[in-house]
Amino acid sequence: MFLGTHAQRLDDKGRLILPAKFREELANGLVLTRGQERCLTVFSTREFESVHEQMRTAPMTSKSARDYLRVFLSGASAEQPDKQSRITVPQALRQYAGLDRDVAVIGMGNRAEIWDAPTWEQYLAETEQGFADRSDEVIPGVI
User: Fold this and answer.
1) Which of 10, 84, 129, 135 maximizes the CB count within 10 A of its CB?
2) Domains of the chain and any CATH numbers
3) b or e along 104-131 (b: 16 or more beta carbons within 10 Å of the residue's beta carbon)?
């Protein structure tokens, strides 16, 4: 399970050292793709295959589904960590998420996200109070 917030840095070649707590889950490969709010989503290869199977049930007649799948899958990049647990974040994905040098890698349970660090801090500042004040059910049956 991916948990926590980890401050990381991209090197000059666009490589990122995976947080130590995420390495075992991602050792056999991962998939990076575009996420909402201009971050990148990181899936283990196994989890990405599961998500893709669910996506395959989307009706081909739905323009919204086609649009989503095009953006989500066209940006996907399969990566294999090297011996130093580094992955290369493709330039197109770095550009999409506005990644420069300092990044935040956050755990999202079954996946992780990579954010430009200042953008993550701004997002968190804007949404944290709403989280603390939440009184209605956001996730049915859980919270």
Assistant:
1) 10
2) 5-133 (3.40.1550.20)
3) bbbbeeebbbbbbbebbeebeeeeeeee
